[in-house]
């Protein structure tokens, strides 16, 4: 089997992408000009290639779609193997009911598997990102804890099978195929679709076979995009009784709401039947484009105990209970020592703000409510608005206005869900100072091949496109995702992993520093320095909840053991301004208070001022680091 290898043209494409997306704002720093005079000039050697693990950037691992229980932590971390060495962030995306299966019984306190998963991340120096969703659409379990329903919250039952397949052995059709395969409507992905042959007459049939084992069914859920353009509009439901097809429901009308790429679901209900086969007899359809199409089909059984309840997301009881949960959630995770970012996320399908389940409020009102609930509780870690559904503009503006820190967008590498105009829009938001957090549209690459194969000849081409788009949109992160996907990245396409390590996120280089070789004890002196960012992302230092907490600092280090003796913050240097393509030069005055006469090593660091000026950011320079994290870049004499 041939292994896809990166070609020189890929490097040229990526470098071209980088060169075309450099920033246009400098945030007040002086771009290099006249060279200031000084007694000594120190020029650290740039680290052009090494992996840097820093806050709010890098490769991400996922805990996602984990059925009724969290992953077995020992197997999970073992399956990742060396892939975990490349990761900076572990994203945990889970339903509220998995974080709190019973009222007040939180996973971080009572779930041993969950606690060991988190400890595994801590042991590997990996921080958390968190997403909680409440809507049960396509969920692997009821997303909102049942105690919320029992407390009186109103909602609705979703048909069993919307995301949970019955035992369908095969599917066939009489309608032919223009795009996709009829099997795509059963591949557990609404990102793929099938369309009939052009200009078919009616009736046409789609038949679901269950083998020798009869099933009980009472609902067929049909998912389509562009429904008013190519959706089915009238069907009969028939079931096999011996050798005869018997009608279970006749002339059922189906009305679609949009002619866009928004997936809509329509349920066709009928009296419960038991059979080894069920078929749709399609008697009419919208054929604006000459044919009709379906993204996915689900069958439900007649057992209400297997249905998933989902709340109205503006229900007062639901919101009261969710408030209490968020209080506990924020108390645990509004801690930058363990959490990198939290997504303002959770309403609508898949938690991504599609098709919110509301009774009274508009989607914008509900999204604003959710944002307020997160921003009123999280004050220390970054919060990201999620671009989803009809609320993309609202998410972008919320971040631009400084209510949230960044924007989070799925769909990378999908020509269908992230077209060029969407990528350009993300770039325009980034140019307003908003960091970008990307997610590949595809996962389970080797098993769910039909999700990406309509667009790409092989996995490597798809992964390459994800990297190119992440670079183009200045993303700080990208996902290795699940253990099997991470193995694909690391073992088959390591050059792509390396490329994003080098150019994704931010990568800070101290070009030079000019200062006296000798200073008087306690005296103020001039220091001139130049910095650059060689990667395409944005350091979120000026964003809400970080609030300029990271500062450039210099230190006197004991020459025998590297311990810091004295240090000084350079207040007029802002790393959050640094964009690829510019050098940022500053002239400042600092002093080293309390330092006695003697020879010292000169240290530099970007420190976290909320942690007592502790060095916090890995720099892309080759100089040795002290135990405390200061880069030793030269010597200085105190008289």
TrEMBL record:
Cross-referenced InterPro entries: DUF4832 (IPR032267), FA58C (IPR000421), Galactose-bd-like_sf (IPR008979), GH (IPR017853)
DUF4832 domain location: 464-621
Pfam families: DUF4832, F5_F8_type_C
Domain F5/8 type C: 175-289
Domain of life: Bacteria
Official protein name in the record: F5/8 type C domain-containing protein
